Amino acid sequence: MVTPVLKKVGKYSGNGVNRLFGDMASFLRRCLFRVLSMGPIPTHFAFIMDGNRRYAKKLNLEEGDGHKAGYLALMSVLLYCYELGIKYVTVYAFSIENFKRRPDEVQSLMDLMLEKIEALLMEESIVNQYGIRVYFIGNLKLLSEPVRAAAEKVMSVTANNNKAVLLVCVAYTSSDEIVHAVEESCKDKRSEIRLWNSSETNNGEIEDVKEVKKTNCMIVHDIQNLCDDRSAESQGLKSSRGCNGVIGGFQRENGFDSRWDEVLTSKASRTGEFSGMEVEGCENLREKHPVIKLVDVEKHMYMAVAPDPDILIRSSGETRLSNFLLWQTSYCPLYYPAALWPEIGLWQLTWAILNFQRTHSYLEKKKQLKHL
Protein backbone atom coordinates (compact mmCIF):
# COMPACT_ATOMS: atom_id res chain seq x y z
CA MET A 1 0.00 0.00 0.00
CA VAL A 2 2.88 2.36 0.75
CA THR A 3 4.56 1.99 -2.63
CA PRO A 4 1.66 3.33 -4.77
CA VAL A 5 1.26 6.27 -2.41
CA LEU A 6 4.97 7.10 -2.65
CA LYS A 7 4.79 6.87 -6.42
CA LYS A 8 1.85 9.25 -6.46
CA VAL A 9 3.61 11.68 -4.12
CA GLY A 10 6.73 11.47 -6.29
CA LYS A 11 4.66 12.16 -9.37
CA TYR A 12 3.08 15.32 -7.93
CA SER A 13 6.41 16.39 -6.46
CA GLY A 14 8.01 16.04 -9.89
CA ASN A 15 5.24 18.10 -11.47
CA GLY A 16 5.77 20.78 -8.84
CA VAL A 17 9.50 20.92 -9.54
CA ASN A 18 8.89 21.13 -13.28
CA ARG A 19 6.40 23.93 -12.75
CA LEU A 20 8.87 25.77 -10.52
CA PHE A 21 11.66 25.53 -13.08
CA GLY A 22 9.22 26.58 -15.79
CA ASP A 23 8.22 29.67 -13.83
CA MET A 24 11.86 30.54 -13.17
CA ALA A 25 12.73 30.16 -16.84
CA SER A 26 9.79 32.38 -17.80
CA PHE A 27 10.86 35.03 -15.27
CA LEU A 28 14.47 35.02 -16.48
CA ARG A 29 13.29 35.24 -20.09
CA ARG A 30 11.15 38.29 -19.30
CA CYS A 31 14.15 39.90 -17.58
CA LEU A 32 16.31 39.21 -20.63
CA PHE A 33 13.69 40.66 -22.97
CA ARG A 34 13.41 43.77 -20.82
CA VAL A 35 17.17 44.31 -21.13
CA LEU A 36 17.04 43.78 -24.90
CA SER A 37 14.15 46.25 -25.13
CA MET A 38 16.48 49.01 -23.98
CA GLY A 39 17.84 49.02 -27.54
CA PRO A 40 16.06 48.98 -30.92
CA ILE A 41 13.92 45.88 -31.50
CA PRO A 42 13.36 44.55 -35.04
CA THR A 43 9.89 44.96 -36.48
CA HIS A 44 10.25 42.06 -38.89
CA PHE A 45 12.20 38.81 -38.44
CA ALA A 46 12.67 36.38 -41.33
CA PHE A 47 13.85 32.78 -40.96
CA ILE A 48 15.23 30.20 -43.38
CA MET A 49 14.49 26.98 -41.50
CA ASP A 50 17.42 24.88 -42.66
CA GLY A 51 18.69 21.59 -41.22
CA ASN A 52 15.61 19.50 -40.39
CA ARG A 53 16.76 16.47 -42.38
CA ARG A 54 20.32 16.74 -41.08
CA TYR A 55 18.96 16.89 -37.54
CA ALA A 56 17.02 13.66 -38.08
CA LYS A 57 20.08 11.99 -39.56
CA LYS A 58 22.28 13.24 -36.73
CA LEU A 59 20.00 11.67 -34.09
CA ASN A 60 19.10 8.59 -36.16
CA LEU A 61 15.45 9.59 -36.25
CA GLU A 62 12.92 8.32 -38.74
CA GLU A 63 12.44 10.30 -41.94
CA GLY A 64 10.02 13.16 -41.30
CA ASP A 65 10.73 13.37 -37.57
CA GLY A 66 13.25 16.14 -38.20
CA HIS A 67 10.51 18.33 -39.69
CA LYS A 68 8.24 17.60 -36.73
CA ALA A 69 11.03 18.70 -34.39
CA GLY A 70 11.47 21.76 -36.58
CA TYR A 71 7.80 22.64 -36.13
CA LEU A 72 8.21 22.56 -32.34
CA ALA A 73 11.25 24.83 -32.66
CA LEU A 74 9.20 27.21 -34.80
CA MET A 75 6.47 27.43 -32.14
CA SER A 76 9.09 28.30 -29.50
CA VAL A 77 10.72 30.93 -31.71
CA LEU A 78 7.34 32.49 -32.50
CA LEU A 79 6.56 32.64 -28.79
CA TYR A 80 9.84 34.43 -28.06
CA CYS A 81 9.36 36.87 -30.94
CA TYR A 82 5.86 37.88 -29.95
CA GLU A 83 6.78 38.16 -26.26
CA LEU A 84 9.57 40.51 -27.32
CA GLY A 85 7.16 42.66 -29.34
CA ILE A 86 8.31 41.69 -32.84
CA LYS A 87 5.18 42.16 -34.96
CA TYR A 88 6.13 40.43 -38.22
CA VAL A 89 7.70 36.99 -38.57
CA THR A 90 8.31 35.37 -41.96
CA VAL A 91 9.37 31.73 -42.32
CA TYR A 92 10.56 29.89 -45.43
CA ALA A 93 8.56 26.68 -45.12
CA PHE A 94 8.59 25.17 -48.61
CA SER A 95 10.40 26.28 -51.76
CA ILE A 96 9.19 25.64 -55.29
CA GLU A 97 12.50 23.82 -55.70
CA ASN A 98 11.40 21.35 -53.02
CA PHE A 99 8.85 19.91 -55.44
CA LYS A 100 11.84 18.32 -57.20
CA ARG A 101 12.46 15.97 -54.26
CA ARG A 102 11.24 12.38 -54.24
CA PRO A 103 7.44 12.19 -54.67
CA ASP A 104 7.00 10.25 -51.43
CA GLU A 105 9.01 12.86 -49.50
CA VAL A 106 7.01 15.72 -51.04
CA GLN A 107 3.75 13.97 -50.16
CA SER A 108 4.95 13.41 -46.60
CA LEU A 109 5.77 17.11 -46.27
CA MET A 110 2.39 18.09 -47.71
CA ASP A 111 0.63 15.83 -45.20
CA LEU A 112 2.62 17.33 -42.33
CA MET A 113 1.92 20.84 -43.61
CA LEU A 114 -1.81 20.12 -43.78
CA GLU A 115 -1.78 18.78 -40.23
CA LYS A 116 0.05 21.81 -38.84
CA ILE A 117 -2.02 24.33 -40.80
CA GLU A 118 -5.22 22.82 -39.42
CA ALA A 119 -3.69 22.93 -35.92
CA LEU A 120 -3.47 26.73 -36.22
CA LEU A 121 -7.28 26.86 -36.12
CA MET A 122 -7.48 25.19 -32.71
CA GLU A 123 -8.53 27.39 -29.82
CA GLU A 124 -5.33 26.81 -27.85
CA SER A 125 -3.03 27.52 -30.80
CA ILE A 126 -0.47 30.33 -30.65
CA VAL A 127 -2.45 32.14 -33.35
CA ASN A 128 -5.45 32.56 -31.06
CA GLN A 129 -3.36 33.21 -27.94
CA TYR A 130 -1.53 36.18 -29.49
CA GLY A 131 -4.09 37.44 -32.01
CA ILE A 132 -1.88 36.59 -34.98
CA ARG A 133 -2.91 37.18 -38.57
CA VAL A 134 -1.56 34.48 -40.87
CA TYR A 135 -0.60 34.90 -44.53
CA PHE A 136 0.54 32.10 -46.80
CA ILE A 137 2.93 33.65 -49.29
CA GLY A 138 3.78 32.13 -52.66
CA ASN A 139 2.27 30.52 -55.73
CA LEU A 140 -0.47 28.67 -53.86
CA LYS A 141 -1.80 27.17 -57.10
CA LEU A 142 1.11 24.72 -56.96
CA LEU A 143 -0.11 23.23 -53.67
CA SER A 144 -2.43 20.26 -53.45
CA GLU A 145 -6.11 21.12 -53.12
CA PRO A 146 -6.46 20.13 -49.41
CA VAL A 147 -3.39 22.15 -48.39
CA ARG A 148 -4.45 25.17 -50.43
CA ALA A 149 -7.98 25.06 -49.02
CA ALA A 150 -6.67 24.79 -45.45
CA ALA A 151 -4.29 27.71 -46.02
CA GLU A 152 -7.06 29.89 -47.43
CA LYS A 153 -9.31 29.01 -44.50
CA VAL A 154 -6.64 30.02 -41.96
CA MET A 155 -6.08 33.33 -43.78
CA SER A 156 -9.81 34.00 -43.79
CA VAL A 157 -10.35 33.08 -40.12
CA THR A 158 -7.41 35.21 -38.90
CA ALA A 159 -8.11 38.19 -41.17
CA ASN A 160 -9.32 40.36 -38.28
CA ASN A 161 -6.36 39.62 -36.00
CA ASN A 162 -4.02 42.60 -35.75
CA LYS A 163 -1.65 42.11 -32.82
CA ALA A 164 1.00 40.24 -34.82
CA VAL A 165 1.54 38.80 -38.29
CA LEU A 166 2.94 35.43 -39.37
CA LEU A 167 3.92 35.02 -43.03
CA VAL A 168 4.50 31.43 -44.15
CA CYS A 169 6.28 31.16 -47.50
CA VAL A 170 5.11 27.99 -49.26
CA ALA A 171 5.55 27.12 -52.94
CA TYR A 172 7.72 30.23 -52.98
CA THR A 173 10.89 31.48 -54.60
CA SER A 174 11.95 35.08 -54.93
CA SER A 175 12.40 34.79 -58.69
CA ASP A 176 8.83 33.53 -59.05
CA GLU A 177 7.63 36.45 -56.92
CA ILE A 178 9.48 38.99 -59.07
CA VAL A 179 8.20 37.50 -62.33
CA HIS A 180 4.65 37.49 -60.95
CA ALA A 181 4.92 41.15 -59.90
CA VAL A 182 6.30 42.27 -63.26
CA GLU A 183 3.62 40.35 -65.17
CA GLU A 184 0.87 41.98 -63.12
CA SER A 185 2.45 45.43 -63.54
CA CYS A 186 2.51 45.05 -67.33
CA LYS A 187 -1.11 43.90 -67.34
CA ASP A 188 -2.10 46.99 -65.37
CA LYS A 189 -0.17 49.27 -67.71
CA ARG A 190 -1.70 47.75 -70.84
CA SER A 191 -5.17 48.09 -69.30
CA GLU A 192 -4.49 51.77 -68.55
CA ILE A 193 -3.45 52.43 -72.15
CA ARG A 194 -6.48 50.64 -73.60
CA LEU A 195 -8.79 52.51 -71.22
CA TRP A 196 -7.21 55.81 -72.21
CA ASN A 197 -7.70 55.02 -75.90
CA SER A 198 -11.32 54.17 -75.28
CA SER A 199 -12.03 57.32 -73.26
CA GLU A 200 -10.39 59.53 -75.89
CA THR A 201 -12.59 58.03 -78.62
CA ASN A 202 -15.74 58.40 -76.52
CA ASN A 203 -15.00 62.09 -76.00
CA GLY A 204 -15.77 62.74 -79.67
CA GLU A 205 -12.25 63.21 -80.94
CA ILE A 206 -12.83 60.56 -83.58
CA GLU A 207 -10.94 62.00 -86.51
CA ASP A 208 -7.88 63.14 -84.59
CA VAL A 209 -7.76 60.08 -82.45
CA LYS A 210 -8.19 57.57 -85.23
CA GLU A 211 -4.58 57.88 -86.31
CA VAL A 212 -3.31 58.28 -82.76
CA LYS A 213 -5.24 55.21 -81.69
CA LYS A 214 -3.68 53.28 -84.54
CA THR A 215 -0.29 54.42 -83.30
CA ASN A 216 -1.19 53.60 -79.72
CA CYS A 217 -2.21 50.10 -80.67
CA MET A 218 1.09 49.66 -82.43
CA ILE A 219 2.85 50.90 -79.30
CA VAL A 220 0.87 48.55 -77.07
CA HIS A 221 1.90 45.70 -79.35
CA ASP A 222 5.52 46.81 -79.17
CA ILE A 223 5.31 47.11 -75.40
CA GLN A 224 4.37 43.43 -75.38
CA ASN A 225 7.35 42.66 -77.60
CA LEU A 226 9.56 44.74 -75.34
CA CYS A 227 8.29 42.84 -72.34
CA ASP A 228 8.99 39.57 -74.09
CA ASP A 229 12.52 40.77 -74.91
CA ARG A 230 13.10 41.58 -71.28
CA SER A 231 11.75 38.18 -70.38
CA ALA A 232 14.34 36.52 -72.56
CA GLU A 233 17.05 38.61 -70.93
CA SER A 234 15.87 37.59 -67.49
CA GLN A 235 15.97 33.85 -67.95
CA GLY A 236 18.48 33.76 -65.16
CA LEU A 237 15.40 33.73 -62.95
CA LYS A 238 14.83 30.14 -64.11
CA SER A 239 11.08 30.42 -63.74
CA SER A 240 8.79 27.97 -65.45
CA ARG A 241 6.54 30.84 -66.49
CA GLY A 242 7.23 33.38 -69.22
CA CYS A 243 7.68 36.97 -68.17
CA ASN A 244 5.36 39.52 -69.70
CA GLY A 245 7.07 42.21 -67.67
CA VAL A 246 9.90 44.65 -68.05
CA ILE A 247 12.61 43.49 -65.67
CA GLY A 248 14.94 46.34 -66.47
CA GLY A 249 12.34 49.10 -66.74
CA PHE A 250 12.52 50.62 -63.30
CA GLN A 251 13.75 54.05 -64.45
CA ARG A 252 17.40 53.20 -64.08
CA GLU A 253 20.19 53.69 -66.58
CA ASN A 254 19.27 52.38 -70.03
CA GLY A 255 15.81 51.71 -68.59
CA PHE A 256 12.35 51.73 -70.05
CA ASP A 257 12.47 55.40 -71.06
CA SER A 258 15.19 54.74 -73.60
CA ARG A 259 13.51 51.53 -74.72
CA TRP A 260 10.26 53.42 -75.30
CA ASP A 261 12.16 55.81 -77.56
CA GLU A 262 13.62 52.78 -79.33
CA VAL A 263 10.10 51.52 -79.99
CA LEU A 264 9.03 54.85 -81.51
CA THR A 265 12.17 55.24 -83.62
CA SER A 266 12.11 51.65 -84.78
CA LYS A 267 8.45 51.84 -85.74
CA ALA A 268 8.97 55.06 -87.67
CA SER A 269 11.96 53.70 -89.57
CA ARG A 270 10.18 50.45 -90.47
CA THR A 271 6.89 51.94 -91.63
CA GLY A 272 7.69 55.55 -92.50
CA GLU A 273 4.11 56.27 -91.51
CA PHE A 274 4.58 58.41 -88.41
CA SER A 275 3.34 61.93 -88.85
CA GLY A 276 4.05 64.71 -86.39
CA MET A 277 0.56 64.26 -84.98
CA GLU A 278 1.13 60.57 -84.38
CA VAL A 279 4.39 61.13 -82.58
CA GLU A 280 2.73 63.87 -80.57
CA GLY A 281 -0.01 61.38 -79.71
CA CYS A 282 2.57 58.89 -78.53
CA GLU A 283 4.25 61.54 -76.40
CA ASN A 284 0.86 62.47 -74.98
CA LEU A 285 0.26 58.81 -74.19
CA ARG A 286 3.61 58.60 -72.46
CA GLU A 287 2.88 61.69 -70.37
CA LYS A 288 -0.53 60.45 -69.26
CA HIS A 289 0.68 56.89 -68.67
CA PRO A 290 4.30 56.91 -67.47
CA VAL A 291 6.47 53.86 -67.70
CA ILE A 292 6.35 51.08 -65.12
CA LYS A 293 7.88 52.34 -61.90
CA LEU A 294 9.42 50.58 -58.96
CA VAL A 295 6.32 51.14 -56.86
CA ASP A 296 4.15 49.51 -59.55
CA VAL A 297 6.15 46.31 -59.26
CA GLU A 298 6.45 46.33 -55.48
CA LYS A 299 2.70 46.62 -54.92
CA HIS A 300 2.25 43.30 -56.77
CA MET A 301 4.86 41.44 -54.72
CA TYR A 302 3.58 38.55 -52.62
CA MET A 303 5.33 40.21 -49.67
CA ALA A 304 3.64 43.58 -50.19
CA VAL A 305 1.54 42.88 -47.06
CA ALA A 306 4.56 43.39 -44.77
CA PRO A 307 7.54 45.76 -44.42
CA ASP A 308 10.97 44.56 -45.50
CA PRO A 309 12.71 42.29 -42.96
CA ASP A 310 15.01 43.90 -40.43
CA ILE A 311 17.06 40.75 -39.92
CA LEU A 312 17.31 37.38 -41.66
CA ILE A 313 18.36 34.24 -39.79
CA ARG A 314 19.44 31.09 -41.59
CA SER A 315 20.11 28.10 -39.38
CA SER A 316 22.80 25.42 -39.92
CA GLY A 317 25.57 27.94 -40.62
CA GLU A 318 24.79 28.30 -44.34
CA THR A 319 25.23 31.75 -45.85
CA ARG A 320 23.11 31.20 -48.99
CA LEU A 321 19.75 32.95 -49.38
CA SER A 322 18.33 30.07 -51.46
CA ASN A 323 16.10 32.34 -53.57
CA PHE A 324 14.35 33.76 -50.50
CA LEU A 325 13.27 37.43 -50.25
CA LEU A 326 16.02 38.59 -52.63
CA TRP A 327 14.08 41.77 -53.44
CA GLN A 328 13.34 42.67 -49.81
CA THR A 329 16.70 42.05 -48.11
CA SER A 330 18.93 44.73 -49.68
CA TYR A 331 19.62 46.33 -46.29
CA CYS A 332 18.95 43.35 -44.08
CA PRO A 333 21.76 41.76 -42.03
CA LEU A 334 22.15 37.99 -42.32
CA TYR A 335 22.79 35.97 -39.16
CA TYR A 336 23.74 32.33 -39.66
CA PRO A 337 24.19 30.34 -36.42
CA ALA A 338 25.69 26.86 -36.71
CA ALA A 339 22.71 25.27 -34.94
CA LEU A 340 20.35 23.21 -37.09
CA TRP A 341 16.80 24.52 -37.19
CA PRO A 342 15.34 22.16 -34.53
CA GLU A 343 18.20 23.30 -32.26
CA ILE A 344 17.43 27.01 -32.67
CA GLY A 345 16.30 28.59 -29.43
CA LEU A 346 16.37 31.62 -27.19
CA TRP A 347 20.15 32.16 -27.26
CA GLN A 348 20.43 32.23 -31.05
CA LEU A 349 17.55 34.70 -31.16
CA THR A 350 19.19 36.86 -28.49
CA TRP A 351 22.52 36.99 -30.33
CA ALA A 352 20.73 37.90 -33.56
CA ILE A 353 19.01 40.84 -31.86
CA LEU A 354 22.28 42.02 -30.30
CA ASN A 355 23.95 41.93 -33.73
CA PHE A 356 21.01 43.87 -35.16
CA GLN A 357 21.32 46.52 -32.45
CA ARG A 358 25.05 46.84 -33.07
CA THR A 359 24.56 47.64 -36.79
CA HIS A 360 21.18 49.35 -36.55
CA SER A 361 22.31 52.98 -36.87
CA TYR A 362 24.52 52.21 -39.88
CA LEU A 363 21.75 50.34 -41.71
CA GLU A 364 19.22 53.08 -40.98
CA LYS A 365 21.55 55.65 -42.56
CA LYS A 366 21.90 53.45 -45.65
CA LYS A 367 18.11 53.14 -45.93
CA GLN A 368 17.68 56.90 -45.67
CA LEU A 369 20.22 57.47 -48.45
CA LYS A 370 18.30 54.99 -50.60
CA HIS A 371 15.15 57.11 -50.41
CA LEU A 372 16.82 60.45 -51.14
Describe the structure.
Keywords: Transferase. InterPro entries: UPP_synth-like, UPP_synth-like_CS, UPP_synth-like_sf. One of its GO terms (cellular component) is endoplasmic reticulum. Its EC number is 2.5.1.-. Belongs to the UPP synthase family. With 372 residues, the protein is of the alpha/beta class. It folds into three domains: 1-38; 41-176 and 308-370, Undecaprenyl pyrophosphate synthetase (3-Layer(aba) Sandwich), CATH 3.40.1180.10; 178-298, no CATH class. Helices cover 57% and strands 9% of the residues. It has twelve helices and six strands. The chain has a six-stranded parallel sheet with strand order 3-4-2-1-5-6, sandwiched between helices. Helix 7 (174-202) packs antiparallel against helix 8 (206-233), helix 8 crosses helix 9 and helix 8 (206-233) crosses helix 10 (276-288). The longest helix has 35 residues, at 2-36. The relative contact order is 0.13.
Number of domains: 3
Chain-averaged pLDDT: 80
Q: Low-confidence spans: pLDDT under 50, at least 5 residues?
A: 1-9, 206-217, 230-253
Q: Total number of helical segments? A: 12
**In total, how many beta strands?**
6
- CATH class of the largest domain, named Alpha Beta
Tell me the strand order in the biggest sheet: 3-4-2-1-5-6
Strand content: 5-15%
| CA distance, first residue to last residue | 81 Å
CATH homology-level superfamily of the largest domain: Decaprenyl diphosphate synthase-like
Order of helices and strands: HEHHEHHEHEHHHHHEEH
